[in-house]
Structures are given as C-alpha cells and as structure tokens.
Specification:
Number of helices: 1
Distance between the termini: 47 Å
Strand order of the largest sheet: 1-5-6
Largest sheet: 3 strands, antiparallel
Helix content: 10-25%
Radius of gyration: 15 Å
Length: about 80
C-alpha cells in the first residue's frame, strides 16, 4: 500500500458529454491518479475534498482518497470584516 500526499490537481467537466476528469499530482508534479467520472455527485465530492481538505492522501492500492489526521471539531476559521 502506498499513501501519497496529493500536492496539486487538475479537474474538468465536459458540458457536452456530461463527464468529468480529475488528475492528482504529488509534490514532484508526478501523476498519482487520473480518474474519469460519469456521476456529477461523485465528481463534486472529490473536487470538494481537493479544494477544502489538507493534508490529503491517495492510497494507490485501495484507490482511496483520504484526509490526514485532524482534531475533532476543528472547523474552518473565518475572518470577519470590520471585526
């Protein structure tokens, strides 16, 4: 099992054929996984993890995308204007 830290990604959604593709890369810009999606909800779930979670790991054996360890209730910090 190889768990590789995802450093960057590329995504696209084909509006004509209703298919998506997400490619994930390691810190050396080497391709980890290039996955095609036909389910918009699945595409959105993966894209959301890539946008919002850090660190993010890809298990090459199980084909799992997972977050790193985070404290319970960490939440996202917000900056309030005028505060």
């Amino acid at each position: 099992m190889a768990n590789i830290l995802v450093a960057s990604y590329y995504s696209r959604w084909d509006l004509k054929h209703h298919k998506g593709r997400i490619a994930m890369y390691d810190s050396g810009n080497q391709l980890i996984e290039n996955h095609s999606f036909s389910d918009p909800a699945e595409f959105q779930a993966v894209a959301s993890m890539l946008r919002n979670e850090k660190p993010l790991w890809y298990d090459t054996e199980a084909s799992h995308l997972r977050t790193g360890s985070e404290p319970v209730g960490e939440g996202e910090s917000r900056v309030h204007e005028g505060a």
